[in-house]
Amino acid sequence: MGIQYNESKKIFHIQGKSVSYIFKADKYNNLIHLYYGKKIRNINDNVINTNKAKSWSIIPNEEDDQYALDSALLEYPTFGHVDLRSGALSIEQENGSRILNLKYDSHKIIKGKKGIEGLPATYADENEAETLEIALIDEVTNLLVVLNYTVFNDRNVITKSVQIINKGYQTLKVLNAQSCCVDYRNSDYELLQLSGAWARERQIVKRQLVQGIQSIGSARGTSSHVHNPFMALMSPDTTEENGEVFGFNLVYSGNFLGEVSVSEHNRTRVLMGINPLNFSWQLKPEERFQTPEVVMVYSNEGLGGMSSEYHSLYRENLMRGTWKEKQRPIVINNWEATYFDFTRESLEDIVKKASEIGVELFVLDDGWFGKRDDDTCSLGDWYVNTDKIEGGLEKLAKNVNNMDMDFGLWFEPEMISPDSDLYRNHSDWCLHVENRERVTCRYQLVLNLSKKEVCDYIIESVSKVLSSAPIKYVKWDMNRYLTDVMSMDLPRDRQMETSHRYMLGLYYIMEEIVTRHKDILFEGCSGGGGRFDPGILYYMPQIWTSDDSDAIERLKIQYSTSLVYPPVSMGSHVSSTPNHQVGRTTPLNTRGNVAMSGNFGYELDLTKYNDKQISEIKEQIDFYKENRQLIQYGDYYRLNNPFEENNGAWIFVSKDKTEAILFYTTILAEPNPVDQQVRCRGLNEEFNYKIDGLEGIFGGDELMNLGLTLPELKDFESVRFRIRKA
Asked: How many CB atoms sit inside 10 A of residue 170's CB?
């Protein structure tokens, strides 16, 4: 395993646990892709000739009239010289030309994995991974392009990123710099993407590849509710357990592009990176530009195999800090209970009731700062509103602590209200276009994080609050997309850098704050799941999955999110009924079962619940505490697909396979039904198991092949089964 180089043939062979990725520098020092798929020992490149000329081919050397590159499999292509397909890199030179001819120059193989300065990325020590750096050079411009490949030895994971260095004498402008390109020989794949909108994020969309370009992306300033920065190519027969899958996930939280193109010869090209729309980056001599990282996962065990790789990688080699492996607390958030209408006393009434039944942390949401009695003012004024919270945050937090609960706080640090002290003092700190009306959304503007003084203000003002009281949790929200993206501090020819500079500023802020406050559990949020991506998980080990807390809608949202992201990264709460987003009424038991399949909590005014309901909530809390380690860090398997079936089912299994918890939820009941079974996954076929509440012994093989017979359920009802080795 690792990285092998055949010097005589100039072939690079990258091997993970069960995956091979192979390419070579050919006789003209062009990088030619050879293979990506299930692990093989070696390759006979003599019979692989994807650069054979075809009718209408572009022949770069007339003396070699059978050699062409316009339909070849290329490792990092550029447009317009010898290839007219979508390119991975476009550079504008001083004479206006965008033509490049990148040639292999050198390479080196190193143990482990380097960090990426200023950007989030996966990490590994020298025993976990190897990294290949391939240097390409364009002789005319003296542009150096370094392709970085890291393979994780015991995983089916390869990461890619690119560094672009101006080694010449002219000023260059990067117009498009994709982090990843993979060419495939054919187009016999389905494209899977996670798309939707606010309150219905990451819905599964599948389509057969056809000739032309299919793409997902965002130009909204965030990875967005609309498309997640993830896509996968699948063989047509792919299921949860079978089929070949190639996953691509960008470790970035801003504008992105994921593109799949099929040529006239049915070659398939996958590109992923920063969206080139409204983007450019100036490179003066010796300056460099670094792309974000793409995490590529290969599976020949279906979507479940792909998910398992992403889950363990992100838990172990992306998340960081104190809370990386700690059990996450059960929280109660006051937002849907009170919205802006609260006092310290009314909050403490909720805390008292929550403490009595075992909730561990209270989160004070929006409305605690400035003059914030509604959403029209005060963003940026990060000081406590003592008219609403008598005695300030310190008194409230200590009172919460005295009731045996920790205290957490909501922020929206990236925003500024026109009606705020901050705006009155620094109206130039927001993103805006000179001489044009400033367009608000939700009565707010976006702070210009490309300005260091703005970043430093956020760091210091938020840190001051976090140091003023015993705060153990922060919900970091971001509630609008970026418009009027212009920075008055940048010259005209660098304005298209603003969106990426915003992201670099955000990552700088997050790195500083989470480093200063190591013991605080940070949860990312962007109007729910509008920035649910690995870039945020690098700084904050959990993210609010969606503002839609309806249990039936969450069946789909959490199912599809789990294709890439582990349950321990998903914030998931029980809210009141009728649900605030869709108006649906569901049983408290169902809301609990769905919510406890992530980071469990409540969005309730517990003072309005009767003794029977409180008793049921306490039972949920006790069950989750007893099984929290298994749910948060066990192996997760999707069993029934709510996008295709009239129910949802999933199971958490311990690493040693001695215990498991199975959840099943009916969407709509059917009249006069026959018995329904759900087949388990992940158990040991040789073990015998007991199931709480059911008589007898069940073989692991029985549960996985025959299945577990379910009780008859009505609309929106749910059951759970605790399974333990006999």
From this structure: 14
Structure confidence by residue, pLDDT tens digits, 96-138: 999 999 999 999 999 999 999 999 999 999 999 999 999 999 9
Distance CA 123, CA 138 (A): 30
Measured between alpha carbons, how far is 455 from 450 in angstroms, rounded to an integer? Answer: 8
Beta-carbon contacts of residue 252 (< 8 Å; ≥ 6 apart): 119, 120, 223, 229, 274, 292, 293, 503, 533, 535
Catalytic residue among 45, 406, 547, 548: 547
Q: For residue range 51-86, what is the model confidence (pLDDT) as tens digits?
A: 787 878 888 888 888 888 888 899 999 998 988 989
pLDDT the model gives residue 666:
97
Helix or strand or coil: residue 680?
A: coil
Active-site entry in 70, 366, 477, 635:
477
Non-local (6+) Cβ contacts of 463 within 8 A are 513, 516, 517
Of 385, 390, 353, 358, residue with least CA distance to 372: 385
Query: Could you give the CA distance from residue 336 to residue 603 in angstroms, rounded to a whole number?
Result: 6
Q: What type of residue is 406?
A: D
Element (H, E) at 561: helix 551-561
Alpha carbon dihedral 591, 477, 435, 256, in 10-degree steps, equals -80
Q: Compute the Cα dihedral for 445, 449, 453, 457 and give only its sign.
A: positive
pLDDT tens by residue, 349-396: 999 999 999 999 999 999 999 999 999 999 999 999 999 999 999 999
Nearest to 51 by CA among 41, 37, 61: 61
Distance separating alpha carbons of residues 131 and 113, to the nearest angstrom: 6
Is residue 477 annotated as a catalytic residue, yes or no?
A: yes
